[in-house]
Amino acid sequence: DGGITQSPKYLFRKEGQNVTLSCEQNLNHDAMYWYRQDPGQGLRLIYYSQIVNDFQKGDIAEGYSVSREKKESFPLTVTSAQKNPTAFYLCASSTPGHYYGYTFGSGTRLTVV
Amino acid sequence: RKEVEQDPGPFNVPEGATVAFNCTYSNSASQSFFWYRQDCRKEPKLLMSVYSSGNEDGRFTAQLNRASQYISLLIRDSKLSDSATYLCVTLNQAGTALIFGKGTTLSVSS
Question: pLDDT tens across A19-32, in order?
């Protein structure tokens, strides 16, 4: 079945460490997105990519980095520069034009310990 | 004005009740409107798209009012399984990605 796979489901990071969250899709979607959700809050856009080898900053890109070397993959690195990284991270993909909504992965819950 | 605003609730209703959620948005040029459902600690899932003419899917009815820039979701004959957070979604001002409201929480009790 087609879908989006995020891994790991839970991730614990020590202060000062970089961590990478994986996002893979087999829906043949061109566009991919990373959102962050804090408790009781909406989703906030971190980065998005509409095509391979191209990506754009969203509203809260500081302290994060991404790459889009393959259509299927859009990994997110949470760097030590991100001051408050504990959150629920959601990856999504879509066809161009936003007309059909997004399909989300099941998310990665990151906790700084 | 925030890009998407929703009443956070919670809305507490008995089974069988009819409940309505409203949402206002700021991007008057948006052509994309959706309602998503999010269960606790899960990813959002598309509930329905919202079309200019209004649309219905079983017990759920969505409507769009472009003049007033709001969309609504009506749930009839509420079920226990409808308990979730409902997210209002449209295109951001830059037209580059979908933007999600903070959600309205619904709790249906027996």
Answer: 999 999 999 999 99
